[in-house]
Amino acid sequence: MTGKRDPLLSVQGLTKAYPGVLANDDISFSVLPGEVHALLGENGAGKSTLVKMIYGLVHPDRGEMMLNGVPYAPAKPGDARLAGVAMVFQHFSLFDALSVAENISLGMEHPPRPADLSEQITRVSQAYGLPLDPDRLVGELSAGERQRVEIIRCLLQDPKLLIMDEPTSVLTPQEVGILFETLRKLSREGTAILYISHKLEEIRDLCDSATILRQGRVVATCDPREHSARELAELMVGEILQAPERTSANMGEVVLDVSGLSLPAPTHFGTALENIGFSLRAGEVLGIGGVAGNGQDELLASLSGETRTAPHCIRLDGRPIGNLGPNARRELGLLAAPEERLGHAAAPDMSLTENALLTGAIREKLVRNGVISWAGTRKFARRIIGEFDVRTPGPETPARALSGGNLQKFVIGREILQRPEVLVVNQPTWGVDASAAASIRQALLDLAQKGAAIIVISQDLDELMEISDTFAALAAGHLTKPRPAHGLTVEEIGLMLAGMTTEEAPHADA
Amino acid sequence: MLTLEKRAIPSRFWARSTPVLAVFMTMIAGGVLFALLGKPPFEAIRTIFWDPLFSEFAFYYRSQLLVKAGPLILIAIGLSLGFRAGIWNIGAEGQYIMGAIFGGAVGLAFYPAEGWYIFPLMVLAGAMGGILWAMIPAMLKTRFGTNEILVSLMLVYVAQNLLSSVSFGVLKNPQGFGFPGSRNLSDYPAAANLDLIEGTGFHWGGVAAILAVLAAWGLLSRHILGYQIQLSGQSPRAARFGGVEPNRLVWICMGISGGLAGLAGLFEVAGPAAQLTPDFNVGYGFTAIVVAFLGRLHPIGIVLAGFLLGLTEVGGGIAQQNLGLPAASIQAFQGMLLFFLLAMDVFSNYRLRWATTEVV
């Protein structure tokens, strides 16, 4: 990477404004052929807008791009693909009911004959260590395999630049390993990769250079391997980050005991829970890892009381509560914060005050004889806003007007301020900016310190390793036995996450 | 190219002004409709909106206004609670008929006894009739997951046939010379729902409507049930998380709306209609749906909308008599009001703008 070579893509002064925000402000950077270039930044820093401009989905207000030394201004993604730019999106656009080959052929302008296509897919998938059967239905594939479909769809176009948007957010550590080997192989063959992520260790592991964005501007361009993850994070956030602190945990008695919890899938697309069992002591933080869609929502619903079970499946302080509803459980001290902030943890069009009532009515005694004390509720909402640093004009603001991080602080704060005995949170920092995520984790640890038992369900393994005392993995509705989190290796976690399904080892024979 | 862009927060301005704009658009489109029917459009619109209030015979029409607005408001208040919770009782007309049959039958059963207790018993029976009829879709929905829109609507036609049957059968006036229809309740003082103030059109139904408006207002603004109703409508998943039992809410909302519709039916049959006939009902149960939405499902809004639709009922009647407009055109006119209201509602959640072409 001497810089002597001509860049494959160079971006000069790209600017894009949306009503009310300057998403990209005078962005310049360049990517060399064969380089793995990271685009690093928090949610809302402007990464997506930038790559959408490169991929022709959005048109810049100002600035220009050069690809291979020629001016490049794609009017639509088709132009970008013709020019050799391909993109793998964070959210897959695949049809469950169609086969791998059919899905890939749908995305092509001139699809070859099905037999030829299948053969091409098999060839590419073998060449890059991404095993995939062209005839399988996409609906049967794991998240990692679906991503392979998207990657192979891109590779069939023989791209010079491959854009990958947060590719590892749905993968297990083993799958991440497979993906990285593929990306390195591509890079060796001369394909440049623009890799979007906010996971610092990954970027230090994989990327040759990094462009760091903050609030729509480039704040640094550097070699990520020459900086510590902490330095990168501080560049990204623009402030000094406090790592969560906790003094040694004093664990008390078992407060929550779950045994033999099995539930059929609530909908066609849901996951059945199978014989889940664990126990949780006062002051303990249990981290439950696993890729979303493996029963996380179902587990949370069965703990919050939205789904009922036989009474003895869930015991709180020895008392069977499996048949109790959410409010009865709240009364006993079992609180929860679901993953989906808008529409589940909070009602989008209701004010923060009204949303404070949603779960606070019972423990904060905001309702007497059916009559709501709005004054008391407003006071409670103000307390949440004040103590958890929720940035909002006031408690009358509707929930959907808050940013993800601020609303999440409100949702978590609402439960924490009710002094739970057991708190269950699902994806507490999903889509939340780094500083809000840090403060949420700290608040959870502080709560555990005071003797509450906490279950954190998360896809973010770094997060779980940071705050958990014990760790278990949820895969296909099965929960592994919780193990002490301290000293678990990435390999061990990966095996736990792979759970009951046998993991293919595609690179073993390559 | 014109595109719709979602607003971050629904516009309060548009939410308030769409009802007024919808009325205005309805006047225009209605005028076109009347012109196509070969009737003078301006005169027709004037007859509908102006004559009931300010014409030569307004003294009579004004009392009619209260007679029409009362049941519309009473029914719409009940419907609005369910609509807010996302429970779509479309069969208020059937519940209204059943209220009239039950309440009327109780009154007729006492004939010719006198007693202060007869009318209250009829009121109770009327409410029960509406509630029972609404419990059918509620039960089918909570037990078997049927669609309450379809079931409640189909039960209107069942109720209609029951009404026919009793008017020709068990409740037929024995001294009615074979004509269909019950005894005339206005001739039976213990069961009659007469004007409380002579000549105003204000009977016990008006009192019930006022009480219902006040109760609904209190319920929605201060009571946990009102909160749960609004929460369930806006965000069903959040409601379940907040401990709301969806089925319980179905029973409550269907019960309240059925009960109020039943009351309206009883007050009508004991008052202005005065007797059960196969066609005493004139579609208040359906018009009340328009009233509820036009009033933004808000108690005060429903009062205003009730009077407006009452006006079109009275004015529409005049237009039928004086201009020979077909009755169906008045119903189409009212339907247009709902259509334009819902269509204009897009602007509270979206803004219209010229898009710079952005291909996605």
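The longest helix of chain A spans residues 173-188.
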